[in-house]
Specification:
The protein has a single domain (8-107), classed as Roll (Ubiquitin-like (UB roll)). 32% of the residues lie in helices and 33% in strands. The protein has helices spanning 54-73, 85-89, 98-107, and strands at 8-14, 18-29, 32-44, 78-81. A hairpin with a 3-residue loop joins strand 1 (8-14) and strand 2 (18-29). The protein starts with 7 loop residues before the first strand and ends with a helix. This is Reverse transcriptase RNase H-like domain-containing protein.
Length: 108
Amino acid sequence: MPDLKLPFKLYIDASGDGIGAALKQVQIINDKPVEGTICFISRKIKPTEARYGESQMECLCLVWALGILNGILEGFVFELITDCTTVKSLLNMKTPKRHMLRWQIVIQ
């Protein structure tokens, strides 16, 4: 059970076959920090998404995960863990493609 007073960690990753995320939280158990899993989510990519590049897949993964986990994460601080620097720069893109622009809006 998550402790709503503690920050969350959202791990995301994408591959050629699917996207997935893990929502975790560090809690203190017996005076030691323990990272526990709250939930795992995943899905196969759709045929139209198969044309996306690696960076777009990772951004898609973030937007999809936020949509699924909105009920838990909305209004709370969380740390995003990803191996893709494009996800980190998504909000700063000056002229993103149309679907990336929609994703910027969702993330904000």
